[in-house]
Amino acid sequence: MNARPSSAIRTFTLIELTIVLLVVGILLGVAAPALRGFARGRETVEEARRLLALSRYARSEAVSRADVVELWLDPETGSYGLRSLLRGAGEPMAAATEIMPEGLSLVVEREESTADESCSLTWGPDGSLDCADLIAIHVLNTRDPADCPVLLPDPQRSCLTIAVENRE
Fold first, then answer.
1. Residue 146 CB contacts under 8 Å (≥ 6 apart), including other chains
2. Residues 6+ positions from 6 with CB-CB distance below 8 Å
3. In the β-sheet with 69-74, what is the strand arrangement from edge to edge?
4. 3-state class (DSSP) for residue 53
5. To which CATH superfamily is domain 14-166 assigned?
């Protein structure tokens, strides 16, 4: 008398749904710490790419405006930006000043150590790069310093290149 018709739809019981939710919760609990580290690593690489894009913009502006454009870096405050040296008399260029997100810092590596940590890269009206004694710019994540993007000046190509350095 309680026989089901053959066209009846099979549904999940409350116990089955509870077990599935419990398993998914356990998997998310195990995976969450690994995903948090992934997001921090991406933040560091994205900041290095932002700095690289700004350097390309600086070269483009120097050539198109027939100007000398400087990309300045101040590791002490974690800020960097562009300024025009000929036409703007050293004034910052519009929308070209950035501050590093909290937890990230800049480290400038030079041929000779100086008391002043700030440095600059300068592009001339012909697109040439003058990087003085700069060897590398490191973008560090103070919370997780394992992988460190490094920007290297390439005067031959008048640009910066990016590499990732493993600090473990």
1. 41, 166, 167, 168
2. none
3. 92-99, 79-84, 69-74, 119-123, 129-130
4. helix
5. minor pseudopilin epsh domain (3.55.40.10)
CA angle 140, 145, 147 (to 5 degrees): 85
Give the residue extent of every domain in the chain: 14-166
How many residues does the structure list for the chain?
168
Q: Is 134 exposed, middle or buried (0-12, 13-18, 19+ CB in 10 A)?
A: buried
Q: Which two tokens mark 47?
A: 């900041």
User: Would you place residue 88 in the very low, low, confident or very high pLDDT band (cuts 50, 70, 90)?
Assistant: low
Among the ranges given (22-36, 56-70, 90-104), the one the predictor scored with the smallest mean pLDDT: 90-104
**Overall pTM surpassing 0.85 (yes/no):** no
